[in-house]
Write a structure and sequence with these properties.
Blueprint (H helix, E strand, L loop, with lengths): L2 H10 L4 E7 L5 H6 L7 E9 L5 E5 L3 H12 L8 H4 L3 E3 L5 E4 L12 H10 L3 E4 L9 H5 L10 E4 L5 H7 L8 E3 L15 E3 L5 H9 L5 E3 L1
Parallel strand pairs: 1-2, 6-7, 7-8
Antiparallel strand pairs: 2-3, 3-6, 4-5, 9-10
Protein name: Polymerase/histidinol phosphatase N-terminal domain-containing protein
Organism: marine sediment metagenome
InterPro entries: PHP_domain, Pol/histidinol_Pase-like
């Protein structure tokens, strides 16, 4: 899952927009953005952040700098050190897939940040926040909390590739009134493009995604 290989596979799958959302980190998002040599693909910098409740939240940003500010906030509340032989090597690469270094942080772990803190901070940076794979008991907000708090200002919910969006909206309690998206949640190159969401938008930007999730100004999520 090197930056260059992710971009190459995404182009082969005819994807228009992808988001690089590593666990508790945005270290490789910039390399993926810089590796794009075609206007056929837009790469959005993001993170999949694990709250102290062990709920995963996707945060998508319009600019890499915003994602890196969020990363520093997360790093300041992320305890533990990685054991590479147990959890794997956490490589930091450049746009040519050359290894620049390795992260020693325990990226697989939960942060000390609560859900509200994560969503509030991401929104303050202009980010879009989406509750990850809400159909899964592990790390999904429904599985962990049993509900979505009324005051949690997320922009939408993500359904995993395992279940169609229409089925999920009718069968998962508490999500019917939220915009729903799906994605490949790829952890290997072969996973890329196994599921996707179609948006009606004017441009491939985070702000347009925000409008589509809200169903404003003619933008929408097509299900």
């Amino acid at each position: 899952m090197s930056p260059k290989k992710i971009v190459e596979r995404s182009l082969k799958k005819d994807l228009d927009i992808i988001a690089i959302c590593d666990h508790n980190s945005a270290e490789n998002a910039g390399a993926a953005i810089r590796s794009v040599k075609s206007d056929r693909l837009c790469v959005i910098p993001g993170m999949e952040i694990c709250s102290r409740e062990e709920v995963h939240i996707l945060a998508l940003f319009g600019e890499l700098e915003q994602a890196l500010v969020m990363q520093q906030h997360v790093y300041g509340h992320l305890p533990g050190q990685n054991e590479a032989k147990v959890f794997g090597y956490q490589i930091i690469a450049d746009e040519n897939d050359e290894v620049l270094g390795e992260s020693s942080r325990l990226l697989i772990g939960a942060t000390e940040l609560g859900l509200q803190e994560i969503v509030t901070k991401a929104r303050s940076l202009g980010g879009v926040t989406i509750a990850s794979h809400v159909d899964r008991p592990a790390f999904g907000i429904i599985g962990k909390l049993g509900f979505i708090p009324d005051d949690l200002r997320i922009d939408g919910v993500e359904i995993s590739y395992r279940i169609p969006l229409k089925t999920a909206r009718d069968s998962i309690p508490g999500i019917k009134h939220f915009p729903c998206v799906t994605s490949s949640d790829a952890h290997s190159p072969d996973d890329i493009g196994r599921a996707w969401t179609s948006f009606l938008m004017a441009a491939p930007t985070v702000e347009e995604i925000r409008l589509a999730l809200k169903g404003e100004k003619g933008r929408k999520v097509e299900i």
